[in-house]
Amino acid sequence: MFSVNDISPLTFAATAGILVVSYAYSSLAKGSRGNHPPGPIGLPFFGPRLSSTPWKDFAEWGKNYGDILYIKSYGKGIMVLNSHPAAVDLLDRRGSNYSDRQTFIMNEYLTRGLSFGMVNVGDMWRKMRRASHECLSKTGVTRYYHVQEREALIFTQNLLCDSSKWNQEVARTAASGMLTAVYDLPPRESINDPLVSKFNDFHEILISAVTPGLIEYSPWLQYLPSFLTPWKTKAQHRFLELSSFFGELMQDHGEQESSAFAPFLIREKDKLGLSDTESAWLAATVVAGFGSNNEALLWLFLALIAHPEKQQKCQEELDAIVGHSRMPTFEDRDNLPYIRATARELLRWKAISPLGTEHVSKEDDWYQGYFIPKGTMCLANLWLMNRNREVYGDDVEEFNPDRFIDSEGKLKPSISDTKDGTLCFNPGPSVNSAQHYNISLFCHFRSMCPARHLSNDIIFIFIARLLWAVKLSAVVDKTTGCPIIPDLTATIVDGVKTQVTLIPRVISDELLTSHMQTPASF
Ligand code: HEM
After folding, report:
1. How many domains does the chain have?
2. What is the pLDDT of residues 135-176, one digit of tens each?
């Protein structure tokens, strides 16, 4: 019988050598730490320390480690793509491997996989994308023009009456516009409107469902007996309660012959292949997207208050093109390049979704000599891409709409205006135009924001109508006599807090009132 004692020291050393080499080879093939993209290591298991603005941490680390970072956080592999070409290569060209979403256990219990923004690429995702395309495509959104125009008018008028709670008014209007677009409901008058509150709560629920808590780090906890997991029962009840609420909304407001989203989902039910519950959740999660528009409009106030000279340029354009006898409409859009540049700059300056949505790799992959294991979470650092100095110049931190205006005063084309996304915004002599891109606000990947046209429309018409009617100024500090300029380095995490003074520019309130006669619904 063979025994270890029979092996000579030489054979033993040779065998051990072969084992070490083959272990090293197989770990390399499986992607040992050494073969992952570089990145800081930090504490065992916990990984490197992340601040409340991780996109800034990633940008800082990128200076040492390069455009593709890999970190392990709480045992989870995360790859961060700091450059647009790398993001396009992986999330678009190899999108079939990187289109899964991170699974959050809490999200599964609360939404049963029906929250549109968190659906994995697959049958359900395709159905939801197809259904939303009808109403959110570039031509589809034209049906909402009058809804957005009217909301921007009501918003402006309400601010003229009382500007002290301007940020609440922003929240009201963002929710109200989406409720009309989806359920064909009349405008909501107050932030305390029960439906607005309900969707505010729902928005919070969706966020909490994807905010990692203890259960995400210790998934086995979910299998404990029910008396030890009351959160599970609570989440399941919440799902049923929300499903029945959204179902009733669909029934009450979805049966009309209007071109709002919910009635469309009901009419086309068979063609779209979505069950009643799935349609109800799709409609509700589209409404919940108002949070992003709300955030963009909050930043708009800060940008305009801090930059009266940019505001004035917008108003000069409005005065020249629209005049004082009528309000701007979507028909004026092509003739208002500076307003459009302001809208675009707003989203570049303060990325609303700085890291996009998490993508997860389905299979092992190799990229630029690095190994990316299956199940790696991939984040596109959109915040940083929109601060590429080679593309935007050295004043990337500034709010400067002029960067999008060419020497003839026209709006420069944006990546969304080009098919292949390879447009170079500001090519210097050393820049390879095929490698540089101008703007990455909504992502250009397979799961790019389906509401990008709608959001662009909303931001455009709000800037146009608001600045047509009023001038925004900072409040003056009574003791110093100086204007209180808001903190522009703050992030939405800190909250957007500032006071604003409104100086009316319109001839009379009657003019605004006359615009209220526009149709109230579809
Ligand atoms: C200024 C406003 C907005 C910005 C900047 C924005 C940005 C984004 C970004 C960056 C993504 C991630 C794409 C990816 O990583 O793959 C995304 C996805 C998404 N957005 Fe938006 N968004 C905005 C408004 C909205 C609104 C109003 C809605 C609701 C109608 C919405 C619904 C979604 C959905 C459902 C997804 C996930 C798409 C999918 O998984 O296929 N967004 N958005």
Report:
1. 1
2. 899 899 999 999 999 999 999 989 988 888 888 899 999 999
Q: Which domain holds residue 322?
A: 123-355+393-512
Between 394 and 443, the higher pLDDT residue: 394
Q: Rounded to the nearest whole angstrom, what is the distance from the C-alpha of residue 101 to the centroid of ligand 1?
A: 14
ipTM for the predicted complex: 0.97
For residue 273, being part of any structural domain is answered with yes
DSSP state of 92: I
Q: Are 470 and 160 in contact (CB under 8 A)?
A: yes
Going through 55-162 in order, the beta strands assigned E by DSSP cover: 68-73, 76-81
Query: How open is the CA angle 192-117-248, to the nearest 5 degrees?
Result: 50
Indicate whether residue 447 lines ligand 1 (CB < 6 A): yes
Confidence band of 301 (pLDDT split at 50, 70, 90): very high
Residue among 241, 232, 235, 246 at smallest CA distance from 274: 246
Q: How many Å apart are CA 236 and CA 352, to the nearest integer? A: 30
Q: Which amino acid is at 391?
A: V
Indicate the DSSP class of residue 77: E
* Structural Rg of the chain based on CA atoms: 26
Residue 204 lies in a domain: yes
Instruction: Decide whether any atom of ligand 1 lies within 6 Å of the 328 Cβ.
Output: no
Nearest residue (CA) to ligand 1, atom 18: 449
Q: Is the CB of 360 under 6 A from ligand 1?
A: no
Ligand 1 pocket member 110 (CB < 6 A): no
* Pairing outcome for strands 76-81 and 370-372: unpaired
Question: Could you write out the three-class secondary structure of 440-486?
Answer: CCCCCCCCCCCCHHHHHHHHHHHHHHHHHHEEEEECECCCCCCECCC
Does the beta carbon of 147 sit less than 6 angstroms from any atom of ligand 1?
A: no
Does a structural domain hold residue 210?
yes
* CATH number where 231 lies: 1.10.630.10
pLDDT of 321 above 80: yes
- Confirm whether 435 is domain-assigned: yes
Q: Is residue 286 within 6 Å of ligand 1 at its C-beta?
A: yes
Q: How high is the pLDDT of residue 197?
A: 93
